[in-house]
Specification:
66% of the residues lie in helices and 0% in strands. Helix 2 packs antiparallel against helix 7 and helix 3 runs antiparallel to helix 6. The C terminus is likely disordered.
């Protein structure tokens, strides 16, 4: 299944994944750009961005040396509600950076908020967690397909 079909699927889990990846990249880049103006919030943005990428792309768990506690925490975030809460906390912290002064970190806060909203909608609709085929996942499953009747390979 192609990316276009995935975008037409109305699966907010996929939308949340794409927005969270964008948010992770933006947080890392914008955190690096503003590191001399907002040291604490920039470091937090870089850390949050890295966590976003690790949550959404589990292959980073194999690349980055992490401990078993961190690995268990990331694997526990398969639930839409937990991802919603995680991204909401990240967004609140990034929005609080605006209390210090306005900066481009608001862009990262906005995309993280959008990711939280997408995962909230996916949780409310009880949509399945699906990884985009663009990122090596299986993409959107055929709603008419019943895996109970599939032949074992």
């Amino acid at each position: 299944m192609g990316v276009v079909e995935e975008l037409k699927s109305r699966n907010f889990s996929l939308y949340g994944q794409m927005v969270a990846l964008l948010s992770g990249v933006l947080l890392i880049v914008l955190g690096g750009v503003t590191i001399f103006m907002h040291l604490i919030y920039s470091i937090l943005a870089i850390v949050f961005g890295a966590i976003c990428l690790i949550i959404e792309l589990p292959v980073f768990l194999h690349i980055c040396p992490t401990g078993p506690t961190f690995d268990k925490m990331v694997h526990a975030l398969k639930n839409h509600w937990l991802r919603f809460a995680t991204y909401l906390v990240f967004a609140i912290v990034m929005w609080s950076s605006l209390a210090h002064s306005s900066s481009v970190l608001a862009i990262g806060a906005a995309t993280t908020t959008l990711a939280a909203i997408c995962y909230f909608i996916a949780a409310v609709k009880k949509q399945a967690q699906i990884t985009s085929s663009l990122l090596g996942g299986s993409g959107v499953h055929n709603p008419g397909f019943d895996p109970r009747y599939a032949t074992q390979v």
